């Protein structure tokens, strides 16, 4: 009976993992559906009903602005105060210190309103016009201020790469704005971007790549392809790596090779052999055992041998002046050949014929042919 019970229990144990796998698959499907945002969906706005009691503490932010922005901020400050008063945030402009301050009030109910107000004054300080900067107060708009001043060492290189980001007559920047749905402002050592979160992410990538010497046109091409792929609902859940272009870096300038190449010697743990001293050399040649007189005599003989060689060479140089140069062999002049005789009579006849002819007159044969042709025409008539 025990064996029968064990046999019957076995299929029940096998059936459990199948049921679990089905549950996991269903959960995975549900998660993928949850990750996709429905078209046209918007997050509901934050109202006073969500926070009826307001804020407990007062928060404030301040930022400095450059001197050249003073006149513009002075003009548009009433508009800034009006826009912030709708969110119950106070704004103050200090022209003496050159700063802008935003603070919350007792009526402020949105805790994120002060953060948006802080971003607004930051954008105004970075030369963004008020018409664009005021969009930061909307729920679906964010901003990003990218610092590019410290990314490149040389000032000339930095200016060139910043100009590359703008493009000829601002065409590259305009293309980037259209593809990312963001407003971009390049000013000094910063790039200010204003738009949706997905667009800001792409703008930051393009700006940083441009500063790393990657031309923005490559990223613009990639963004254009991504824009077309996003229109296809079937490709939303698939990887786009196969469609995107892959650009390879080309180093055109090659490093100049040095004329003299220093080849490193193979490393050996043993030190080099010690050079022979003068005593060692004398011992090897046997001079060490000679007497002082013999050494002196040997030195004198060596000096005399050197002098004899030098005298011999000098004598040879002097004798070179007395050696006559080799004479060139005399070239025999050929006598004029008298075999070809000049026909004087033929020359005379040619001269006579030339005298008879008038300058520009036709030859005799041509005149006869012309006369015959005229007579034929007359007969026909």
UniProtKB/TrEMBL annotation:
InterPro entries: KH_dom, KH_dom_type_1_sf, KRR1-like_KH1, KRR1-like_KH1_euk, KRR1-like_KH2, KRR1-like_KH2_euk, rRNA_assembly_KRR1. Its main location: nucleus. Keywords: Nucleus, Ribonucleoprotein, Ribosome biogenesis, RNA-binding, rRNA processing. It comes from the Eukaryota. One of its GO terms (molecular function) is RNA binding. GO terms for cellular component: chromosome; intercellular bridge; nucleoplasm; small-subunit processome. SUPFAM superfamilies: Eukaryotic type KH-domain (KH-domain type I). SMART domains: KH. Gene3D superfamilies: K Homology domain, type 1. One of its GO terms (biological process) is rRNA processing. Residues 13-25, 247-263 have a biased composition (Basic residues). It is found in: Nucleus, Nucleolus. Residues 1-31, 247-281, 308-338 are annotated as: Disordered. PANTHER family: HIV-1 REV BINDING PROTEIN 2, 3 (PTHR12581), KRR1 SMALL SUBUNIT PROCESSOME COMPONENT HOMOLOG (PTHR12581:SF0). Required for 40S ribosome biogenesis. Involved in nucleolar processing of pre-18S ribosomal RNA and ribosome assembly. Part of the small subunit (SSU) processome, first precursor of the small eukaryotic ribosomal subunit. During the assembly of the SSU processome in the nucleolus, many ribosome biogenesis factors, an RNA chaperone and ribosomal proteins associate with the nascent pre-rRNA and work in concert to generate RNA folding, modifications, rearrangements and cleavage as well as targeted degradation of pre-ribosomal RNA by the RNA exosome. This is KRR1 small subunit processome component. It comes from Strigops habroptila. The lineage of its organism: Eukaryota, Metazoa, Chordata, Craniata, Vertebrata. The gene is KRR1.
């Amino acid at each position: 009976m025990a064996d029968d019970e064990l046999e019957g229990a076995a299929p029940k144990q096998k059936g459990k993992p199948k049921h679990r796998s089905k549950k996991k698959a269903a959960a995975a499907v549900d998660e993928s559906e949850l990750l996709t945002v429905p078209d046209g969906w918007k997050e509901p706005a934050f109202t006073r009903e969500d926070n009826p009691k307001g804020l407990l503490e007062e928060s404030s932010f301040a930022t400095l602005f450059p001197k050249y922005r003073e006149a513009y901020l002075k003009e548009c400050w009433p508009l800034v105060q009006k826009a912030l008063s709708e969110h119950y945030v106070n704004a103050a402009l200090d022209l003496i210190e050159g700063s802008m301050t935003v603070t919350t009030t007792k009526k402020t109910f949105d805790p994120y309103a002060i953060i948006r107000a802080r971003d607004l004054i930051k954008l105004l300080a970075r030369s963004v016009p008020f018409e664009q900067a005021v969009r930061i107060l909307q729920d679906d708009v964010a901003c990003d201020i990218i610092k590019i001043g410290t990314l490149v060492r040389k000032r000339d290189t930095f200016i060139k790469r910043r100009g590359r980001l703008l493009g000829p007559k601002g065409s590259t920047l305009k293309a980037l704005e259209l593809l990312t749905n963001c407003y971009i402002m390049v000013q000094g050592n910063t790039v200010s971007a204003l738009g949706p979160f997905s667009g800001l992410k792409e703008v930051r990538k393009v700006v940083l790549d441009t500063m790393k010497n990657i031309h923005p046109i490559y990223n613009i091409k990639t963004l254009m392809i991504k824009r077309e792929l996003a229109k296809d609902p079937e490709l939303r859940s698939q990887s786009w790596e196969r469609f995107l272009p892959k650009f390879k870096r080309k180093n055109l300038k090659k490093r100049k090779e040095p004329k003299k190449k220093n080849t490193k010697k193979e490393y050996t743990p043993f030190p080099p052999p010690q050079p022979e001293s003068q005593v060692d050399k004398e011992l090897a040649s046997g001079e060490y055992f000679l007497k002082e007189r013999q050494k002196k005599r040997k030195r004198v003989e060596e000096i005399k041998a050197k002098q004899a060689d030098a005298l011999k060479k000098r004598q040879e140089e002097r004798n070179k002046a007395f050696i006559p140069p080799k004479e060139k062999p005399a070239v025999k002049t050929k006598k004029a050949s008298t075999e070809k005789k000049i026909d004087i009579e033929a020359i005379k006849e040619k001269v006579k014929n030339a005298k008879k002819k008038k300058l520009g007159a036709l030859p005799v044969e041509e005149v006869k042919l012309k006369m015959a042709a005229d007579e034929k025409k007359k007969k026909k008539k």
